[in-house]
Amino acid sequence: MRQRVKNLTNSPYDLPLMGGGSVRLPAFGEVEGEFAPDYVALLRSSAAVELVSDLPPVPPVPELPPMPPMPVDTTGDGVPEMPPALPGLPGLPGAAV
After folding, report:
1. Dihedral sign of CA atoms 37, 20, 55, 43 in order
2. What are the pLDDT digits (tens) for 49-82?
3. Start-end of H helices in the chain
4. I need a labelling partner for 52 at 20 to 30 A (CA). Which of 21, 25, 36, 71 fits?
5. Would you tell me how many other CB atoms lie within 10 Å of the CB of residue 64?
6. In the β-sheet with 30-34, what is the strand arrangement from edge to edge?
7. For residue 88, what are the contacts with CB-CB under 8 A and spacing of at least 6?
8. How far apart (Å, rounded) are the C-alpha atoms in residues 68 and 83?
9. pTM above the 0.70 mark?
């Protein structure tokens, strides 16, 4: 479960994340993380921390399309030439149609 946890004490804590590893909860600070449901229940019962909110899961980042070809001076004459086009990018200068 993705949670925001607030530390109510002046001591930092290392909180174990669901996928492995941990996140440092600073003294009187807040962190967000994906914690196991049984650990969230443990945090709820603790007087040292407060669960600020139940956060929705972070959606995956969509894959970006490839960059269009950039002009490069390949002959040394100071004039950039278009490199070979990337397939599937019609309408861009130098792109294969």
Report:
1. positive
2. 999 876 666 678 888 888 777 777 778 888 887 7
3. 37-45
4. 21
5. 6
6. 30-34, 2-7, 49-54
7. 96
8. 10
9. no
Mark 7-45 as b/e (b = at least 16 C-beta within 10 Å). beeeeebebeeeeeeeeebeeeeebebebeeebbeebee
Q: Find out whether 16 and 32 touch, Cβ atoms under 8 Å.
A: no
- Angle (CA) 68 73 79, round 5°: 105
Contact 36, 18 (CB under 8 A): yes
In total, the chain counts a number of residues equal to 97
Instruction: State phi, psi for 22 to the nearest 5 degrees.
Output: -150, 170
First to last CA, the chain: 47
